[in-house]
């Protein structure tokens, strides 16, 4: 698995990591056992970056449990998602408990109360409980505010959606991140699974074989990661076979412009 510097955050990350929205919000024993199996498979394949949030129900707790004994080998990204500073402090206490007293990338979820939470995160960073600070938003309508936060000089990474059918970040956010040296975490590489509903025919994927791509999810991940300004993609899955499929996209050779355009055309008109 290729590793990249997550901008100037000081973190080294594998290019394929994993999200935990919906998938890790499990409460029964069998669900937790499956989450542990998913994490174990990801670690064996080098996909050792995990993204969570208190917004994702039980996900932080379940992820923390699955990382027992492996915490030092992984990069944990989670978020504050709180209206008040009391709620934020409570979320931080819980997350530090789940993740061995340290969060590697602590992000402000959907920019909720960002000014207030940045001050808290800066204090935690000074104290050594947080390694890098980031901000996330899923909606292009918030990218103006996101750009303002990026330009504040107070964050080292952003998390944004990017896939062949959702390219809003290309015009301003990705160039700004590159100019400022910020890390870029890519959420929703499969458009919440929507891009996988109709899959191009095997013959249409054949031209991508020299790039190590044999499946449509791999083509989509490689499309994202072939932009060197994108440092880690975080597909969510609850299927160990899909973990393997996705991790295989994390190695060169990377697509050139022509292959990226080809995949974007396939995404618009599958099969
Ligand atoms: N900060 C924010 O505002 C925000 C918003 C949205 C998401 N996120 C983060 O980004 C992560 C990813 O986004 P997402 O969960 O919305 O969507 P996604 O990763 O684009 O798509 C997830 C879907 O793809 C399927 N999938 C994954 N790998 C597959 C494979 N190899 N073959 C077939 N199906 C596959 C999964 O189903 P299976 O379980 O069957 O594999 C799941 O239904 C989230 O989990 C979360 O951590 C952050």
How do the strands and helices of this protein lay out in sequence?
Blueprint: E1 3-5, E2 12-14, E3 18-19, H1 29-44, E4 49-51, H2 59-66, E5 75-80, H3 85-98, E6 103-108, H4 114-126, E7 130-136, H5 143-151, E8 157-161, H6 173-180, E9 183-187, H7 202-205, H8 216-225, E10 232-233, H9 240-247, H10 257-268
Parallel strand pairs: 3-4, 4-5, 5-6, 6-7, 7-8, 8-9, 9-10
Antiparallel strand pairs: 1-2
Helix pairs in contact: 1-2, 1-9, 2-3, 5-6
The chain binds NADP nicotinamide-adenine-dinucleotide phosphate.
Can you offer a commentary on this structure?
38% of the residues lie in helices and 15% in strands. The protein has 271 residues and is of the alpha/beta class. The radius of gyration is 18 Å and the shape is globular. The mean pLDDT is 96.
Helix content: 25-40%
Largest sheet report:
8 strands, parallel
Number of domains: 1
The separation of the N and C termini measures 29 Å
CATH third-tier fold name: TIM Barrel
Bound molecules: NADP nicotinamide-adenine-dinucleotide phosphate
Q: What is the number of beta strands?
A: 10
Radius of gyration: 18 Å
Question: What string, H for helix and E for strand, traces the elements in order?
Answer: EEEHEHEHEHEHEHEHHEHH
CATH class annotation: Alpha Beta
Q: Average pLDDT value?
A: 96
**What's the CATH architecture?**
Alpha-Beta Barrel
**pLDDT < 50 runs, ≥5 residues:** none
Give a short synopsis of this structure.
The chain has 271 residues and is an alpha/beta fold. It has helices spanning 29-44, 59-66, 85-98, 114-126, 143-151, 173-180, 202-205, 216-225, 240-247, 257-268; strands at 3-5, 12-14, 18-19, 49-51, 75-80, 103-108, 130-136, 157-161, 183-187, 232-233. Helix content is 38%, strand content 15%.
